């Protein structure tokens, strides 16, 4: 009677073939060898299938994560508008010693296809006793050491609208300014002033003056609580924002003072500084 032996055929299939007397003595060896080979092949194929499934799952998760990231928008952040020049032009105004005019060129936004950075003309007037703080890093910041009045020149990109288009200085919600100015990643907070709370209390849009960048100018009022200088209870401050639009970005002057001195003197000084702010067309 012929005995069948299990052998491994080409392509990985297992089959039974008739056994001849010449190989009768090796029957058990052949059976065990063929069984081991088939088992190894099945394990290899199972591992390959599991690896492919894992890779497919990882690829799907990565695609979903990328899509989620691409669909999210970064929070608005106002950073220092850097000077384009080496040295600003500061001129005394009459009566001599009371006011000074600050004139300079700022680094402009880089638009698509633009080979070099543009410059943006800037000017504003401020009380002469204010001291510059940010010259070493290329920004513009002033402070009155006796009253705590502060001036910042900042910039922030305008966000997209709900339809995926671009907002403008006139249409962007007023909350955008508060979130951008007091962002944890913005220049004011990163400069050492922690913000406990803030509110944009008013906003108005007017026509931009002749020669200015854009067609609109925007003025906003702020209230906020600053925590700095080792005073954890916070200091109530009020401020004004004056803003222009340059190629999809907002360039703004932020001036603020303590709330306790606002009505007596600081409010009028802050308003005069904001009124003098001017951003020209990028060149």
Folded structure, characterized:
With 283 residues, the chain is α+β, with helices and mostly antiparallel strands. The protein is built from four helices and 14 strands. The protein starts with a strand and ends with a strand. Strand 8 and strand 9 form a beta hairpin.
Short description:
This protein is an alpha+beta fold and 283 residues long. Helix content is 25%, strand content 35%.
Q: Which percent band covers the strand fraction?
A: 35-45%
Secondary-structure-based class equals alpha+beta
Share of helix, binned = 25-40%
Number of strands: 14
The backbone outline, from C-alpha atoms, is globular
What is the CA-CA span between the terminal residues?
A: 102 Å
Mean of residue pLDDT values: 80
The tally of helices reads 4
Low-confidence stretches are 1-72
H/E topology pattern: EEHEEEEEEEHHEEEEHE
Radius of gyration: 35 Å
Largest sheet: 8 strands, antiparallel
Task: Give structural attributes.
283 residues; alpha+beta; 4 helices; 14 strands; 35% strand; disordered N terminus
Write the layout of secondary structure elements.
Blueprint: E1 3-8, E2 14-19, H1 27-71, E3 79-80, E4 89-93, E5 99-107, E6 119-127, E7 131-132, E8 141-143, E9 150-157, H2 175-181, H3 187-190, E10 194-207, E11 216-227, E12 235-246, E13 249-258, H4 262-276, E14 278-279
Antiparallel strand pairs: 1-2, 3-9, 4-5, 5-6, 6-14, 7-8, 8-9, 9-13, 10-11, 11-12, 12-13
């Amino acid at each position: 009677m012929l005995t069948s032996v299990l052998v491994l055929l080409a392509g990985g299939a297992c089959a039974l073939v008739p056994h001849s007397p010449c190989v009768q003595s090796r029957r058990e060896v052949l059976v065990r060898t063929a069984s081991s080979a088939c088992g190894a092949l099945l394990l290899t194929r199972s591992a390959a299938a599991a690896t492919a499934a894992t890779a497919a799952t990882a690829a799907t998760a990565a695609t979903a994560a990328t899509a989620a990231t691409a669909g999210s928008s970064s929070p608005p952040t106002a950073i220092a508008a850097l000077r384009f020049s080496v040295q600003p032009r500061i001129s005394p105004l009459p009566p001599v010693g009371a006011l000074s005019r600050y004139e300079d060129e700022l680094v402009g936004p880089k638009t698509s296809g633009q080979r070099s950075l543009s410059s943006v003309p800037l000017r504003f007037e401020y009380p002469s006793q204010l001291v510059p703080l940010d010259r070493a890093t290329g920004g513009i910041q002033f402070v009155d050491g006796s009253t705590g009045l502060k001036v910042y020149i900042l910039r922030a990109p305008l966000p997209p609208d709900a339809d995926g288009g671009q907002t403008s200085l006139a249409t962007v919600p007023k909350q955008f300014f508060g979130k951008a100015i007091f962002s944890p990643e913005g220049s004011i907070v990163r400069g050492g002033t922690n913000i406990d709370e803030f509110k944009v209390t008013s906003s108005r849009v007017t026509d931009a003056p002749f020669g200015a960048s854009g067609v609109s100018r925007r003025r906003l009022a702020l209230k906020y609580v600053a925590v700095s200088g080792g005073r954890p209870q916070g200091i109530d401050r009020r401020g004004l924002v004056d803003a222009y639009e340059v190629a999809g970005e907002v360039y703004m002057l932020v001036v603020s003072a303590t709330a306790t001195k606002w009505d007596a003197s600081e409010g009028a000084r802050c308003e005069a500084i904001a009124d003098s702010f001017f951003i020209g067309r990028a060149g």
